[in-house]
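WARN no homologs supplied; continuing
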Amino acid sequence: MVENLGLVFVGGGLGAVCRYFVTTQIGARFGTFFPWGTLTVNTVGSFMMGFIMGMLLLLIERMGTSVSEPVRLLLTVGFLGGLTTFSSFSMETLTLLRGGSYFYAICNISSNIILGLLAAGCGVFLAARLS
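OK structure emitted
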């Protein structure tokens, strides 16, 4: 249990640092009129989640190994949990709505949902193709 908490803690910290770096760099390059940084980390995180889970499932099927549980905790619960951020997505969308930017709010909602699902599906597909 303590080992699992440590894995999630380390992964979450690394993911949060990566999220901060990506969102600030993208915001500096593309401006703040639309939350491009959050959209980027959510899309990339969805792809990585699909890919990692697809690869781990294949490892379990082929090797019957339980070594994937610590890796899953570190990468998905920890790192991707720290990297992606539904709370930022929600607050940024609310801010857009409160500011009267209804078009951008709808674009933000649609983009996060559609790109997130497509990215996760692509990750699972790529994992299956690599095996």
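Helices lie at 2-30, 36-63, 68-83, 86-98, 102-130.
OK
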